[in-house]
Amino acid sequence: MIKFKFIDDLCNGLKAAFPNADSELSIVPERCPENMEGDLTINCFRFARNLKGAPDKVADAAAEILAKHPDIEKVEKVKAFVNITMTAVAAHRQTVGDISALLQAGVLEQGRQRILIEYSAPNTNKPQHLGHVRNNTLGMALAALLKRVGHEVIEINLVNDRGIHICKSMLGYQRFGNGVTPESSGIKGDHLVGDFYVKYSRALKDDIEALKKERPELAGKDDDELFLETELGRMTQKMLQDWEAGEPEVRALWQKMNNWVFAGFAETYRRMGINFAHTYLESQTYMLGKDLIADGLEKGVFQKRADGAIFIDLGKLGQKVVLRSDGTSVYITQDIGTTLKKYEDYRPESQIWVVGDEQILHFQMLFAILKKMGYTWADNLYHLSYGMVNLPTGKMKSREGKVVDADDLFAEMVDLAKVAAEERAGGEATSEELAARAEIIGMGALKFMLLKFNPKTTMMFDPQASVKFEGDTGPYVQYACARINSIERKAAERGLAVEAVNWELASAPEEKAVSLLLWQYPQVLQTAAEKKDCSLLVDYLLDVAKAFNRFYRECPVLNAEDDAVKQVRFALCLAVRTVLKDGLATLTIGVPEAM
RNA sequence: GCUUUGGUAGCUCAGUGGAUAGAGCAUCUCCCUCCUAAGGAGAGGGUCGUGGGUUCGAUUCCCGCCCAGAGCACCA
After folding, report:
1. At A350, phi and psi to the nearest 5?
2. Distance A573 CA to B5 C1' (A)
3. Which ipTM value was assigned to this complex?
4. CB atoms within 10 A of CB A46
5. Which tens digits make up the pLDDT trace of A567-576?
6. Which residue has the least CA–C1' distance to nucleotide B23?
7. Helix extents (H) in A96-230
8. pTM here?
9. Which nucleotide is closest to A307, CA to C1'?
10. Is A95 strand, coil or helix?
11. How distant is C1' of B53 from CA of A29, in Å?
């Protein structure tokens, strides 16, 4: 991060004043509260004990040192806080004054890694919904953030393309499809398949209800228990067995329907801007892991139970079966194998999974097992768990059709952005331009909103509120950029170029506030990457946009009275835009030319 | 029952062992003869779930309790 000159001088001065001080002394200035006078504040409570001095005395000494510093205009001591007002030149010099260095400072000097990140992981029996969109957005933005600070990041997907639920949509198609295709119906492939999954589910529910009427003794049983009592259920199980046996007709249907779904997913991913380096298919990985169990059994990592099942004792986490008594594998067995496969394929230093928080225990167990199996890299596995998305009407429920479909949501956001953009453009833009703008604004608004929440919070998605583009939203940040673009265009028309910038002329509080916010950018990037939390960056970009809008209101750029002032302010605008664009790009959000 | 995450303004969410706890939305005022009003300025709105404890100082850390979500399969 960029360190202001006066900080070093302060550290040295304080060490001299407090002879018993620890050799380690780190002072990071904080933002001064609005109601206090000053640009930054030194909170002496934080490091007084490193100096072996009372906070109040330390603050006295700090105030005395800073008051004499050429970069400091004014010092005010309140309790153990030292509020400082910097000179304009000092505030701008290392921030907007050297914007490329500021951007570069976000990159880690050490500790860069090759990181594998897995996200999305959809099933091929239905289209993606809002929950997937949160997952996709968190995954792609985290990948971009990690890249931004210098890591090598490999994004991968693991598609769940086999299993009983896939057979359900296939059987639904066989029963009710009449040979319809995406081409013949004009329906996107994943939606078409999803429709048959829904039709199947309804038919199964009807069959179970009929069964319960016929045999009242079953009334207390739940639907899963009665699955195999229905003809439809038995056929579904038969289909899964046929699939596993490689029965050609079943395989052909499976392949055909999965291809429809993949084509649909490709469109969803394209619109979000996702590019996976590789997509693993569960149909090709589900048998992995089994052979590792025998090996682990020999080494004593696993134990065999009397009934033949193989398990592992994970202490506090409990016991976990890794091979059923019939010798077949379970979910975690596959994950053991797949994790090893991913490691062998890419040799990453760490792996990240973006998966919902209901699987926290699963991943704790997975990581613990891999460690016990002796893989040293298992210390660097990370489950980025995130909370579910609720609607004002309650939880999303696929079975009840209470879901917000991803493609519908994209269309709705972009349509609304388009209506607004058309109104504002007033015929000044072509329809292609408007469409491109609306795409960037609508998708940006959606991603920004999803990233604004801390990943682990169970968030509420209010469709009504989410389509607004005012307040703490992506478009608010994009709008600040659009305003700067507009200034840039007008500056070019008027022949204003930035030549010699005299930062001394940017001494208004609004101008310094912008610079001092931009100063924090490298640290924000690194902290967000360290915590794997993009919401920190989201909040920061909102702060910058707010500071810019205040500046924009108070300090005319092109209408300033003096040419030199115009240049300084114009330079400040360009620096703001550079950071906002860079930050939004790090969240995988674009910026339109105009709004 | 056990594990775990949360309970902060009417709503959705930030936040932190330190200065008078913040933002957006919603409500109410103002501001387009001025670089884009998807903007700015301001007002009202809080016993930070609750009862204890540690501390110079606790919304933040510890313990109990209440409420809510999630998990506790030879399902994925």
Report:
1. -150, 155
2. 42
3. 0.96
4. 15
5. 999 999 999 9
6. A472
7. 99-104, 130-148, 164-176, 182-185, 189-214, 223-226
8. 0.95
9. B74
10. coil
11. 33
